[in-house]
Design the sequence.
């Protein structure tokens, strides 16, 4: 990337001009990202550069603005510069237009004009990328084997990427409750189901495993298992089972299974030292916002559970862009929101920076918003009374400024934004209306054939492409149930034989005092008693009532800790 790391000074004489004072707050000696140049009264000042220290990108941030104001291109610009400085990046590509970051940009009049306005030396550059998709949805997964469970990824739509899967056990009850759209009572019941499976070491790899455990816990044999901690009502179990079925009918069953994605693969760098940009292709599932937003949260929670504490680093281990962030919080339970807040607060010390991307700051809960030290605010519209109220609320969240922010925020053009970040000293920088630099990579998608080729050429494709369906809760419970049914059949045959044998003696006389005084033979157990008392049937009860494996421990977010 052709950028200069030397701070600039203005040749102005006399009293400092406002844009010069603003730019002074962004003068950085060490590694930094160049976002653009200061705007003042509609004029762009290329010598007044807005530079953000690399070290502050683990202090989290917010990229906000109305639709069509350039948020996606801002993500692309920041991701490019982070990659160039050796920082891995994660991006969610909801509209299918971020894949161009892997290819050099196209020169043109608009690009040259923007570069001249902001003092940028523009050189077309592509960046190292990996492309992922939930469950391998789309053409890249075709022929790679269907996912375990009743659902599959067929029929969801088109897309291309290395499959990203999670086991149900790893996903945890809080996140799964949001995907299944359960209410608080049902969420608590799902928590009991996971608690039971965890303590018994029953791994829930895919959705059919979860269905099997739910069905067992409301059966005559399984009801007693949860009786001491509240039990599971048949009605609630029915709701959960119907929600699982609906999820599978949407084709989402393929998202749960193995091999489970190892989030450590998001922390890789290329051979030339640049950070790899991991792009999660979500265009094929953009009509399932609760599903993909919750999967993004699972990725973060898994990273939090695996990474060690490192404190403040010279550069972050990973910067994670959480697009369409409002979808994560819509309809979320109190427990879910508390877990999100805690994860965001604590993951910073593990070297991970999170940037939430949404339309207005009010889309993000106040407790989460308070954790975000960096702000890039694109234009807001004020067409309705609600819009005007949101605009005033947004202005109040910025530090005191020399700008009339209500006027500036409604007057920004595409590719312009108001910026303020936490400096290396921990104090907010001056609010800077900024004309942003042009991305060096392609501003648009790469051809589908190129995307699929990149996916299949990846060293990770062979590891994750084929779905694996190993023995887990479903297979174990099914085998035990089959054994119990066979025992019942054998008991029924024995009972029929004994009944037939008894008929042969029905006509015989049994007289005599000695015989009359003989003790009566013990009554034979009923068929039900024989089945329930059979060794194989008791084996089923023991297998699910004792420790089947190591107890599964969970993180602060309720996700299972990865077994290494």
Sequence:
């Amino acid at each position: 990337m052709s950028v200069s790391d030397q701070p600039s000074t203005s040749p102005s004489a006399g009293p400092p001009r406002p844009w010069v004072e603003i730019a002074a707050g962004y003068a950085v000696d060490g590694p930094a990202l160049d976002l653009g140049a200061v705007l003042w009264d509609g004029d762009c000042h290329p010598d007044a550069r807005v530079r953000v220290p690399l070290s502050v990108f683990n202090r989290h941030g917010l990229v906000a603005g109305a639709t069509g104001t350039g948020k996606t291109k801002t993500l692309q610009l920041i991701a490019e510069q982070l990659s160039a400085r050796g920082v891995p990046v994660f991006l969610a590509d909801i509209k299918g237009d971020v894949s161009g970051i892997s290819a050099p940009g196209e020169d043109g009049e608009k690009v040259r004009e923007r570069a001249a306005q902001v003092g940028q030396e523009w050189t077309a550059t592509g960046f190292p990328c990996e492309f992922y998709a939930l469950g391998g949805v789309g053409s890249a997964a075709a022929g790679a084997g269907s996912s375990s469970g009743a659902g599959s990824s067929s029929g969801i739509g088109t897309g291309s990427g290395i499959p990203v899967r999670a086991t149900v056990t790893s996903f945890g009850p809080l996140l799964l409750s949001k995907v299944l759209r359960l209410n608080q009572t049902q969420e608590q019941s799902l928590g009991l189901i996971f608690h039971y499976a965890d303590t018994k070491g029953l791994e829930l790899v895919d959705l059919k495993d979860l269905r099997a455990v739910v069905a067992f816990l409301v059966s005559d044999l399984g009801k007693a298992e949860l009786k001491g901690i509240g039990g599971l009502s048949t009605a609630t179990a029915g709701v959960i089972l119907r929600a699982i079925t609906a999820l599978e009918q949407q084709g989402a069953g393929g998202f749960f299974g193995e091999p489970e994605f190892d989030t450590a693969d998001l922390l890789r760098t290329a051979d030339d030292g640049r950070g790899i940009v991991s792009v999660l292709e979500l265009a094929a599932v953009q009509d399932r916002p609760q599903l993909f937003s919750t999967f993004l949260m699972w990725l973060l929670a898994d990273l939090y559970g695996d990474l060690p504490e490192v404190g403040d680093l010279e550069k972050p281990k990973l910067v994670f862009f959480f697009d369409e962030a409002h979808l994560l919080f819509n309809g979320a339970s109190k427990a879910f929101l508390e877990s999100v807040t805690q994860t965001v607060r604590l993951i910073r010390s593990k070297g991970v920076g999170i940037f939430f991307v949404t339309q207005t700051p009010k889309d993000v809960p106040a407790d989460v918003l308070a954790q975000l030290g960096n702000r890039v605010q694109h234009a807001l519209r004020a067409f309705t009374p609600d819009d005007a109220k949101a605009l005033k609320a947004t202005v109040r969240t910025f530090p005191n400024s020399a700008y009339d922010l209500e006027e500036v925020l409604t007057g920004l053009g595409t590719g312009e934004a108001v910026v303020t970040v936490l400096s290396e000293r921990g104090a907010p920088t001056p609010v800077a209306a900024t004309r942003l630099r042009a991305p060096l990579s392609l501003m648009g998608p790469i051809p589908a054939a190129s995307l699929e080729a990149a996916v299949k050429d990846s060293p990770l494709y062979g590891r994750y492409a084929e779905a694996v369906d190993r023995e887990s809760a479903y297979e174990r419970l099914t085998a035990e149930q089959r054994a119990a049914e066979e025992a019942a059949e054998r008991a029924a045959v024995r009972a029929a034989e004994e009944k037939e044998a008894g008929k042969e003696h029905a006509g015989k006389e049994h007289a005599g005092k000695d015989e009359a005084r003989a003790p009566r033979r013990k009554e034979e157990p009923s068929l039900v008693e024989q089945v329930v008392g059979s060794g194989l049937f008791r084996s089923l009860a023991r297998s699910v009532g004792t420790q089947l494996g190591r107890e599964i421990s969970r993180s602060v977010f309720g996700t299972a800790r990865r077994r290494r």
Q: What stands out?
A: Residues 1-12, 138-159, 526-550 have pLDDT under 50 and may be disordered. The longest strand covers residues 43-53.
